[in-house]
Amino acid sequence: MFAYEFMQRAFAVSTVLGIILPCIGLPVLLKRLSMLGDTLAHASLAGVAIGLCFGFNPLIGSVVACVVAGLSVEVVSSRLRAYQEISTVIVLAAAIGLAGIFTSFTGGGSSISGYLFGSVVTISDLEFKLVLGVAAVVIVIYRLIYTRLYLSVFDPAAAPLLGINTKTLSLVFSLLVAIAVSVAAKTIGSLIVSSLLVIPSITAMQLARTYKGTLACSIGISLACMYSGLTISYYCNLKPGSVIVLISVAVLLATLLIRHKARS
């Protein structure tokens, strides 16, 4: 299968996503913001529908929509401090509504279905370069804020005392999540990306005991699921994104079962 350029490109994109999704997924999980991934995934679908409706690249629409949604979550949560989890619900509802409206303007659901379940094997040259460029930006910024993000996740009360601007850090991290989810939604599917954002990290938490160990383990699990999912989907002619997420769920269930038997 590596004789085909589209499969080489698919594995390259999957490698990139297999690294950046756990990097942002673990803090999202620890900050109890799992709904954020689902919210941004639906926002990406709205961006795709807007792109198809107005005739520009849907991936660009997805990136812009996710960034706007991420900023909106931050603005709403800052205004509703007592009910910060409501911010994701509000933006999620708006994203679903916009996606539904603009999807009806595109003239058919067939063009949208590829974005619902992913099309990593059919991305264009522009989309391939955009994914790699966005991934590079995410990795660089993530590395720069890694220590501050780690401290703010585990001790948000003490973080300001250590000179960490938690508001700015939260804003930057939300933008990273938005950008990563937007490119992942186009390649592995808007309905699937939120699962891959957290499931490898949940699995890694069952196996590792430290933050770095959990992060490294989650990246390894994510890459393994990506590669095996692509291989199976190629030989069985299945949707890559769907196969990848089912494998990740199976790995999580197997891990939980093994740990349960080990304890009993």
From TrEMBL:
Residue ranges crossing the lipid bilayer per the database entry: 49-76, 88-108, 128-146, 215-235, 241-258
InterPro entries in the record: ABC_BtuC-like, ABC_TroCD
Superkingdom assignment: Bacteria
Keywords per UniProt: Membrane, Transmembrane, Transmembrane helix, Transport
Subcellular location field: Cell membrane; Membrane
Membrane topology term: Multi-pass membrane protein
Main location: membrane
Signal peptide: none
Protein family (similarity comment): Belongs to the ABC-3 integral membrane protein family.
Protein name, UniProt field: Metal ABC transporter permease
Species per Swiss-Prot/TrEMBL record: Collinsella ureilytica
